[in-house]
Write a structure and sequence with these properties.
CATH class of the largest domain: Alpha Beta
CATH superfamily of the largest domain: ANL, N-terminal domain
Strand order of the largest sheet: 2-1-10-9-11-12-13-14-15
Distance between the termini: 55 Å
Shape: globular
CATH architecture of the largest domain: 3-Layer(aba) Sandwich
Helix content: 25-40%
CATH topology of the largest domain: Rossmann fold
Length: 505
Amino acid sequence: MNPAEWLARTARAHPDRPALFLGARHVTDYAGFARQAGSIAAALAARGIGAGDRVAIFQPNSIDYLPLFYGILWAGATCVPVNGKLHAREAAWILGHSGTRLVFAKDADALRATEDIGQTVCIETGGPDHAAMLDTQPSDWPEPMAGDAPAWLFYTSGTTGRPKGAMLTCDNLLAASLSYLADVDDVAPDDAALYAAPMSHGAGLYNFIHVQRGARHVVPESGGFDPAEILSLARELGNISMFAAPTMVKRLVDRARSEGSDGAGIKTIVYGGGPMYVADIKDALSVLGPKFVQIYGQGEAPMTISALSRADIADHTHPDWEARLASVGRAHSVAEVRILDAEGRILPPGDVGEIAVRGPQVMAGYLDNPEANAKTLRDGWLLTGDLGHLDHGGYLTLHDRAKDLVISGGSNIYPREVEEALLTHPEVSEVSVIGQPDPEWGEIVVAFIVAEPGCTPAPADLDAACTALIARFKKPKRYVMVPDLPKNNYGKVLKTELRARLGDD
């Protein structure tokens, strides 16, 4: 089924229900939302674009984003959402690789100036060609799409090389969306999905179930993440739900504390996309209360590998509470999760190995990349490249990416457990741990530390924080004080950049 049918159905059943908001300002209802999508679809069809064609969106979050996204699907085409913060040359590479026929872009001239744009037609969002498309007589109903038809071509962040295009089918998106209701949160018509993280990635995925339930969709006027703006919108609009990376949660909590706010109007914050340390989620609970749900997923299994429920996060009376906070919860309803050894054998509870997942939400494969498909997809299982273990209760705990494992003196050291220990030091704000090649040990542990304002934690005190919680051989051999950690647009620390810094020393 074409996911755009959810929009068409909601618009017919509840045409006057508020749909799109720019900040606190109501822009259009569901009838208007569907009309825009149908007009975009009709204009694309007039250009000969339909099933099997790819149409991209290259821009930051905006009030135009969802009508464009649904217009592409409405036409039966495949949407290619491109991170709006990429350089035009990086975006042009994705357009060329995906064979995109048309792209909606905030800065179409920058794309046209690149060498790789080829024959891709560029439409400037908000420009006269876009306006003419919106004036087109709308298509009455979305084009039929088979369940295995590609709907969303998701390009990975590409922090270690060229990004790969994960082909997400209609069935993938519908399974992931319905799993939100089963494992993350319920959605009511008076709820509001707030898009503070990029709509080209995980935050955008949650639009589908909010459309199906006829809820509101809010794009901040800033177009991104501003903690003060979010707290203000939550108070004004109420029942806000949003996806946030852990670094975003930390900033939101700090702002709420400084305002004396308890996050009134925020219904749910779904966090994921990177490690949320136990100390940080405890702090978040103390300031904002039980508003949190954690998810673990990848672009290849979008937002749907495991979930840690609101109840699990809030239940501080449970004897395993801290261990559960350190986990990423239990398998989503649609997911099978296993821990595998290097030979692909299933490991028992407690043993660390590679996390594998199978289910209807797992991508069809990478576009034009048989080598990556052979490495990543085996017998229906997605090999995530993440290391973790399952406990007897089915709770999954991440250790690290396999490539981030530090092997020092023949012993495995997981950076996350070192990071957790260092974050117990009151003068440490952020930390990232990597391995540095060493002729004697193979690798040594190096910790990059962002200190709290006005603080300079002593190495001896940092050592003490580690040895109070982990074995001595795991503590860093070197501490590097930095003003901030390099991150990508989704809040993930770029360990490749940290390794490069060490190489420059």
